[in-house]
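FW: tagging you since you asked about this chain on Friday. Here's the raw sequence from the shared folder, copied in full. Didn't touch anything.
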Amino acid sequence: MPRILLHICCGPCSLYPVSALRGEDFVVHGFFYNPHIQPYQEFEKRLETLRSCALDRDLPLIVRDDYDPETFFRQVAFRETNRCRYCYSLRLEATARLAKKSGFDAFTTTLLYSKRQKHELIASIAEEAARKQGIAFLYRDFRVGWREGQREAEARGLYRQQYCGCIYSEMERFCNDRRTHPQRHPGR
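HL: got it, structure written out here
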């Protein structure tokens, strides 16, 4: 059976992709590497939730828990409109390198599960990382299982974050909410 390394951004986003890949007879290993997540407490919550999901699903998990926000900020400062490209590249290139080094047959990512991510950009960056590292990238549009995965996460009471992870996405999520729903934020 082919072995695949699945880059995972969080526990809830792993539920459907892991099931789908196993349904295709892949041996799935998870890889958590998300240095963009801010603040550190959020990083810890997401990792803790993923560890719980991995344990429940008997999913081998590789965790790269180095926390280096300074590098992320240096790369995106004054280039905030291109921050997603950098962030996706950072994580997908690391996944491709690890997959190649560890003898996996291919890699993919749960970033392809979210309806809120830049799907085509993710696929393009992953294809480029695959070419550079000489390993296959398995494209799957996991968005077809988004509702199913969200229902399962909710039923299990899993922590589900309200923003992508970086401080900019947090600001956009909460500032846009405040602008469009001022009644939720009295006195501001």
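FW: The mean pLDDT is 89.
HL: agreed, and Helices lie at 11-23, 40-57, 69-76, 83-101, 119-133, 146-156, 167-180.
FW: great, closing this out.
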